[in-house]
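Dear colleague,

Thank you for sharing your sequence with our group. We've completed the structure prediction you requested, and as agreed, I am returning the results in plain text so they can be pasted directly into your records. Please verify that the sequence below matches your submission; if there's any discrepancy, let me know and we will rerun it promptly.
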Amino acid sequence: MSRAVLPVLAVLFALPAGAMIWKGQDFAQVFQAVAGPTDLLEGCTDVPEAVSLAEELRDRALRIERYMQALDQRKADLDAAEATLRTRLGELQASKGAIKASRTGSTEAVRSDIDRLIALYDQMKPAEAAAILTNLPSDFAAEILMRVQPEAGARIIAAVEPRQAALLTAQMGARSVRKP
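Please find the predicted structure tokens below.
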């Protein structure tokens, strides 16, 4: 028997819904709970509990309305803040790219200058290069000697006085140990 009741109930609920769809009515209005104070108090104005309950419900509805407005405002504020942050992130990424490009350009310029300096020492006579290198800081002189052609470096070290040559050689060895 219960199996026969279920299809009948389904048809009873489906027919009014189908009629509403056919007429093009809005379902939201059907299921919307609207209770104005006058509707609630109709016939009950002489019952103090009913009046109190209706006022409390109206106050709750107003608080909920204000709360929903506050939520909408917060959502709008968050959306604006997110847009600002996205804009700032884009600016920072562009700035980072520009800085990276600038660093790359300046690093290339420094490398080019060092390469010219090394080429210059490669072309000098060993005695002249030795005289200049002995007046430079030992770590800088060792760096130059590490980068010149091996034959030119050997001739320059041979032209330096033995104590200075030992110091430069030690600096070159220490550099090799630090940077494998």
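Summary note from our side: The first helix runs from residue 2 to 23.

Kind regards,
the structure core
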